[in-house]
Amino acid sequence: MRSAFPALACLALLLPACGSHAETQPLVVDPLPPRRGRSSAPASASAAASAPTSAAALAPAPVPDPEAARLFLERYAAPALPLLPDVRPSRVLGLAFDGSVRGETAGMSAEGARFGATLAEGERAWVPVSYPVGACVTVVAQGGIGVVEVDLFLTTSGPAPVRIVAQDARTGPTAVIGGKDDCFLLLEPFIGNLSVSVRKGSGMVLVQQFRPVTRDR
């Protein structure tokens, strides 16, 4: 008799994920806008049965770290450095940044200059940004030698209390908002700040924005 285990496994793939991370992110007060890119709709039962599933496909999508948001908002009032254009990174950092960009921005073009800042642990650097309605953006940040954990945030600007609109969900010296064949969609005109902070370690961080070469109609 054929084992029922494969059938049970297929049924398990169709069940919704248990629990929710919404309760763990009280500081991210704005829901994230819909994103252009791969659909999040579950696959049909027939597709799940016929198509081979990889470990990457079954892995849950990463979610922003609530501790990163908590520390960012807690330290937001502290003096911050400007993100400056046309900085000169080390060869190692330049190569690492170029590699991250190639992996995250296929079909996109750079939007403005590449920025950078040298940050101590806990410090933040920022630059004002504005996007028209319907803009779909990807932001890549790459830390150099000595940078252990980088966090990237898109926030509103003052004078009202700052609100996090988008936050990276990566760990390590690379942080990305959007990325791969996706980007972060703004449903209304936006004026705010793009901030990068070093949560662990210290060193130079490079940041650049990207937009799709062509938009979906």
Summarize the structure.
By secondary structure, the chain is an alpha+beta fold.
Could you walk me through the main structural features you see in this protein, from its secondary elements to its overall organization?
This protein is an alpha+beta fold and 217 residues long. It has 2 domains: 31 residues, no CATH class; 150 residues, Jelly Rolls. The strands form 2 sheets. Strands 1, 3, 4, 6, 9, 10 and 12 form a 7-stranded antiparallel beta sheet that branches. The protein has a 5-stranded mixed beta sheet with strand order 2-5-11-7-8, covered by helices on one side. The radius of gyration is 19 Å and the shape is globular. The N and C termini lie far apart (52 Å).
Summarize the amount of helix as a percent range.
10-25%
CATH class of the largest domain: Mainly Beta
Query: What structural category do the secondary elements indicate?
Result: alpha+beta
Tell the overall outline. Answer: globular
Provide a count of the helices. Answer: 5
SSE inventory with pairings:
Layout: H1 5-14, E1 35-36, H2 45-50, H3 55-58, H4 66-74, E2 81-82, E3 84-85, H5 91-104, E4 108-119, E5 124-131, E6 136-143, E7 147-156, E8 164-167, E9 174-177, E10 183-185, E11 190-201, E12 203-212
Parallel strand pairs: 2-5
Antiparallel strand pairs: 1-10, 3-4, 4-12, 5-11, 6-9, 6-10, 6-12, 7-8, 7-11
